[in-house]
Design goal:
Helix content: 40-55%
CATH superfamily: NAD(P)-binding Rossmann-like Domain
Structural class: alpha/beta
Number of domains: 1
CATH class: Alpha Beta
Shape: globular
Strand content: 5-15%
Strand order of the largest sheet: 3-2-1-4-5-6-7-8
Bound molecules: NADP nicotinamide-adenine-dinucleotide phosphate
Distance between the termini: 41 Å
Radius of gyration: 18 Å
Largest sheet: 8 strands, mixed
Number of helices: 11
CATH architecture: 3-Layer(aba) Sandwich
Oligomer: single chain
Number of strands: 8
């Protein structure tokens, strides 16, 4: 039996998830990298392992584990949650750092859902709900990696399908992440804790795949310039995530809080604090993800 904390990291192959994985593994946590491709995950495990051995940190077998999950597909999410419940006797932390920004939409999945809404909102919501028992048993902490954009929600077009504009649709999914983070903190108070984490602007400029990930046209040009001028290394986000996960003996003290890197933001966040809209979104997601059909 080990007392290492077991932390699941969704979006572990991306900038922030990978940085959080490294920072947590360096501090001795058992990390589970979540992603949709087993091959990509295995390659990233190799990279993380190499980084740790460079820093002369020894890791045991299974200290860096993987779990395959496609957050856009609710069947995959349910199967992965079932597997996690079987494999992990405790889940002390869950980092939700999944992000799909897809151009030229709306891209409607066979399930009928828009891909960004399904991946960024429905999948992480369903996964967390299916892990409730384990999170409660382990005094768990869920870290919602958010962005601070404010966009008005169209409750008649929650998935932003009509008059679809990719950036608007994406930014709305980020507003939903903040609403869910706040609602989860209220709903599960005393059971497990939820916080929102704003990572500032970070990009791994050494990523060989970076070129292929830029949007085309002017947007791509704009983001390239922004990255050169302003983006910092993902480690500046990974380190505070690891601190938040591992340094708080009483996690209830930070339940419902918003952090920008290592600073707690005292100004209340509108999307996180709106109890009426948080509840409304929650109830919609319960139906959309099939948690209940009533
Ligand atoms: N980077 C920033 O400056 C910044 C700032 C504010 C907020 N954020 C938010 O932080 C989160 C992570 O950002 P990031 O920069 O780390 O993004 P990223 O590098 O693009 O990583 C996104 C992650 O999501 C995963 N993903 C995408 N679709 C998936 C699916 N269907 N199933 C499972 N995993 C899927 C990707 O996996 P694959 O490797 O398989 O594609 C990748 O691991 C996003 O939600 C973003 O909005 C980022």
């Amino acid at each position: 039996m080990t007392n290492k904390q077991t932390i699941l990291i969704a979006g572990a192959t991306g900038n922030i998830g990978r940085a959080a994985t490294v920072a947590l593994a360096k501090r001795g946590a058992q990390v589970v990298m979540l992603g949709r491709s087993a091959d990509k995950l295995k390659a990233k495990v190799g990279q993380v392992g190499a980084e740790l051995s460079e820093a002369q940190i020894e890791v045991q077998d299974k200290d860096i584990d993987i779990l395959v999950i496609d957050f856009s597909n609710m069947n995959s999410v349910s199967l992965a949650a079932e597997e996690a419940m079987k494999r992990f006797t405790k889940i002390n932390g869950l980092i939700l750092s999944v992000g799909a920004l897809i151009q030229n939409g709306p891209n409607i999945l066979p399930s009928g859902h828009e891909v960004m809404f399904a991946t960024n909102v429905m999948g992480p919501f369903l996964f967390t709900e299916l892990l409730l028992k384990r999170l409660e048993e382990s005094d768990g902490l869920v870290v919602h990696v958010i962005a601070p954009f404010d966009k008005e929600i169209d409750w008649n077009d929650l998935e932003s399908i009509r008059n679809h504009k990719p950036m608007l649709a994406f930014n709305r999914t980020k507003v939903f992440n903040r609403m869910i983070s706040g609602e989860s903190a209220r709903r599960y108070i005393g059971k497990f804790s939820s916080i929102a984490f704003d990572p500032a602007y970070v990009i791994d400029k050494t990523d060989p795949e970076l070129k292929e990930r830029w949007p085309s046209g002017f947007a791509g040009f704009f983001w390239r310039i922004m990255t050169i001028l302003f983006a910092k290394s993902p480690a500046i986000a990974g380190e505070p995530i690891a601190n938040l996960m591992l340094s708080h003996r009483d996690r209830s003290e930070i339940n419902g809080a918003l952090f920008k890197l290592d600073k707690r933001v005292e100004k209340p966040d509108k999307a996180m604090n709106d109890e009426v809209l948080g509840k409304r979104l929650w109830e919609k997601l319960v139906l959309l993800t099939g948690l209940t059909t009533e």
